[in-house]
Amino acid sequence: MKQFKLNVTAREGKGRSVSRRLRAVGKIPGILYGKQTSPVQLAIDAPEFRRLLKAIGGSAAIIEFQRPDGRNAISFIQEVQKDPLTDEFIHIDLHEVAPDEKMEIRVGVRLLGESFGVKNENGIIEVSAHSLLLRCLPKDLPEFVEVDVTELHVNQSIHVSELKKIAGVEILDKPGLPVVSCGEPPAEEVVATVAAAPVEGALAEGAVPAEGAAGAPAAGAAGAAVPAAGAKGAAPAAGAKGAAPAAGAAGAAAPAAGAKGAAPAAGAKGAASGADKKASGKK
Q1: Which single residue of 72, 149, 183, 244 could bond 115 by disulfide (Cβ 3.0 to 4.6 Å)?
Q2: pLDDT tens digits for 156-175?
């Protein structure tokens, strides 16, 4: 059993205005009550109470103090109210008990060991009851309710009835209450990739359109697969300067008729001599 000391003083008056004035000077309004005492209004030093909570560290503890009437007393912290925005203490309830009086108090659960299910089966520990209600004498108060989870497998739980007995302590929670369990590991999500259906008539990337299909140039069509005239890198049009004549065309690879130094076209029998004779006959 952990035992700590706390200094308290009596406070006069009640109400919000009195409590605000106390907090403004670093005091926390509180109250002391119990089965064998009348309620007593208290004022508690805020820095000292913070140090006390830090020393207790979340465990169950008995607090010794001197009552405003001069008698020594023991108690436990019944309730602490805090402002959720400023984290400032608003009010403290202390429950006074007699050394020979059995008290009821909630005590935190502490796990011991490494679960077999976590270590070997990829399980996950889930705590269902973070504290349990106990009845005991002040001298028998445990700091925590310890739960050994070493042999806990996946899909198994430890209930109140299975906890190790603590000397002088009675657990008031239902025997069938689950305290801790080992769950199965979460299933991995498999995301299926669905290919988009092609639009009717659309071409796959890199595909060549079939002959006669819409948008495909007809076989032998003028300019089929030939860049537009004047386009950069396009072949020059037929008859254009420097254009290569079509394969098999008359006079292919021969200069145009009448060109300087041009040879007569193939098959033009005596074309040059016939022309001279005709010219002389006219004369």
Answers
A1: 149
A2: 999 999 999 999 999 999 99
